[in-house]
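RECORD TYPE: protein structure
NAME: Sulfate transport system ATP-binding protein
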Amino acid sequence: MSIEIRNVSKRFGAFQALDEINLDIRSGELVALLGPSGCGKTTLLRIIAGLETPDVGSIVFHGEDVSGHDVRDRNVGFVFQHYALFRHMTVFDNVAFGLRMKPKKERPSEAQIKDQVHELLGMVQLDWLADRYPEQLSGGQRQRIALARALAVEPKILLLDEPFGALDAKVRKELRRWLARLHEEINLTSVFVTHDQEEAMEVADRIVVMNKGVVEQIGSPGEVYEQPASDFVYHFLGDSNRLHLGEEGHILFRPHEVSLSREALPGHLPAEVRDIRPLGAITRITLRVEGQGEPLEAEVVKSHPSLLGLQRGARLYFQPSGRRG
Ligand SMILES: Nc1ncnc2c1ncn2[C@@H]1O[C@H](COP(=O)(O)OP(=O)(O)OP(=O)(O)O)[C@@H](O)[C@H]1O
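PREDICTED:
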């Protein structure tokens, strides 16, 4: 099911939380809303869900304007970061909840509910936990159960608000990959909110970069990273250095977009090594450059010749190889 967001604006008092947002999400897409805290991501998600009403604009699901539809009639599934499972219910009953709440004529029999719940628990690979209570689960298991509960009513649209935000880095990574796979298996259109660019890059088909209530750029992970539409997008999608060039202004470059040498080379600037951090396949070097306020960061492969025997305080010569600005 496709989602169109047409000219949506929302104010809270004098504060403009969303300013004329237009967005087309294709059927079957997995889209990330990415941006800093307070940029309006959650508000937009809540408007798509029907939990919040826009001041102006409309929401269209598959050609039908659903702006006037109540949240219950939109058939969307949700997973929110702190949207707790019902503590007094077992995992099974949590997942069955939405099915049991259906109007009588649509409600499946208890036998059908049992089959469906076990199928869903199988899909999130946690069928063996059916009789446990939420407090007996790990954070990652809880999130997967929350997802199974959201999927139980067979929504065509799934909305996820920082679904993995509270989990540790390794579990987050596993769940992200798992979500991307699951999304391929079942026919869903999903929108998820994150402030983590790596999460957006890794999972999403397209990324919507938001800032202060407006959309800065929409594109595939490759597009927004390689062809950022603004300095904001450039900064938000990865580490960056700013090199001041006096009257010529400044250039921006990524830590890996740099040529490093122990010898003075044409076009290269001298710098002092302040820190050397081996990070697996690459090594990060912090450089202090005369006349620059902020130190610069360079990343090279760990076998790079300039690293051999390199010590703090040594002199290196560098030249940005990619640049923006
Ligand atoms: N009900 C409300 N009343 C007043 N202001 C609100 C309300 N809901 C949100 N806001 C404000 O609107 C702005 C956007 O909030 P929103 O929750 O959409 O941001 P976000 O991008 O999801 O941020 P975060 O990543 O921190 O969750 C914020 O400045 C917030 O304080």
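COMMENT: The chain has two domains: 3-235, 243-320.
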